Amino acid sequence: MAKLLSVSDALGSPAFSTWRSYYQLTKPKVIYLLMLTALVGMCLAVESWLPPLQATFSLLGIGLVCASAAAINQILDRNIDDKMARTQGRPLPKGRVSVRNASVFAGVLALVGFVMLLLAANLLTAILTFASMLGYAVVYTLFLKRATPQNIVIGGLAGAMPPLLGWTAMTGQLDGNALLLVMIIFTWTPPHFWALAIHRRDDYAKANIPMLPVTHGIEFTKTCVLLYTLLLCAVALLPCLTGLSSWLYGVVVMGLNLRFMQHAWRLKFKPQPNSAINTFKFSIVHLMILFLALLLDHWLL
Ligand code: HEM
Ligand SMILES: CC(C)=CCC/C(C)=C/CC/C(C)=C/COP(=O)(O)OP(=O)(O)O
């Protein structure tokens, strides 16, 4: 009993809540999925087992730079985040972390991440990771997000990069199959985000952010979700055609594609109040299982 009390005391302590605020600055769940895609890129790049030290520190390096990009995004977006119900509770709008401390935190994460990439991976990976970080934290956040409803389509390229970063970390070279993995996440991003943006349309309108449902309406956005889902379904099959993956991945991805199409179709033609948020949630399951299937197929067949 005493032990249980001391655990709950520790969780409620100021030190833990400070630690949790910094952790939240990194958008942890997004980062874990990004790191999974980078890890799969690494595994698919080599025929045998991964070199343990090189792979561990490269993956950590990619994760730390992504986390830094997420923290910079929250620093630059703190005034927008304060206006939206979904983001109001974040550490910066709530004043739980100061802008100065968040900036130091983001700087340290980026620095440690780059040094790790330079030491464990190679210069190409460090440069590509730096470019992706700038693409998301500066180009998307500061310019595109505030300027055009195509913001997430263009900005999505940065978030799609981790499998390529994982690949180059192991081989030091660009590869067509790695670009194919990037294409999968690139075409996945619009249905992933626009489904959420439909659900949160009023939040974005209130914050004056030109997301597609605000500028072009909900019906048009639903059509775009459906069309991009179709495109994603086609692109997701390409690893079978290029020989990167075989029947196991093919069977799993066909099941995933059918389910995603069902969500997108329902959202457009038979909507229920929670169709949009359910489509968003399924998009995350879709990408996670798709990358796990790529890995299993690579290992088992
Ligand atoms: C420009 C591209 C992207 C945009 C605009 C975008 C946008 C968003 C937004 C607004 C959320 C909601 C976060 C919240 O509830 O506070 C979200 C959640 C999420 N996104 Fe994305 N996303 C993008 C790319 C990605 C990528 C590339 C991945 C991973 C490969 C990813 C994985 C996730 C995950 C796992 C969540 C759930 C987070 C949670 O429940 O806390 N996203 N995304
Ligand atoms: C090095 C590298 C690959 C960097 C990219 C890393 C990264 C964190 C990509 C995630 C994309 C994402 C969560 C966008 C949402 O931003 P938003 O501002 O539209 O969402 P919000 O309103 O929830 O903050």
UniProtKB/TrEMBL annotation:
It is a multi-pass membrane protein. Pathway: Porphyrin-containing compound metabolism; heme O biosynthesis; heme O from protoheme: step 1/1. It is found in: Cell membrane. CDD domains: PT_UbiA_Cox10. It catalyses: heme b + (2E,6E)-farnesyl diphosphate + H2O = Fe(II)-heme o + diphosphate. It comes from the Bacteria. Keywords: Cell membrane, Heme biosynthesis, Membrane, Transferase, Transmembrane, Transmembrane helix. InterPro entries: Protohaem_IX_farnesylTrfase, UbiA_prenyltransferase, UbiA_prenylTrfase_CS, UbiA_sf. Its EC number is 2.5.1.141. Its main location: membrane. HAMAP family: CyoE_CtaB (MF_00154). PANTHER family: 4-HYDROXYBENZOATE SOLANESYLTRANSFERASE, PROTOHEME IX FARNESYLTRANSFERASE, MITOCHONDRIAL. Belongs to the UbiA prenyltransferase family. Protoheme IX farnesyltransferase subfamily. Converts heme B (protoheme IX) to heme O by substitution of the vinyl group on carbon 2 of heme B porphyrin ring with a hydroxyethyl farnesyl side group. This is Protoheme IX farnesyltransferase. It comes from Motilimonas cestriensis.
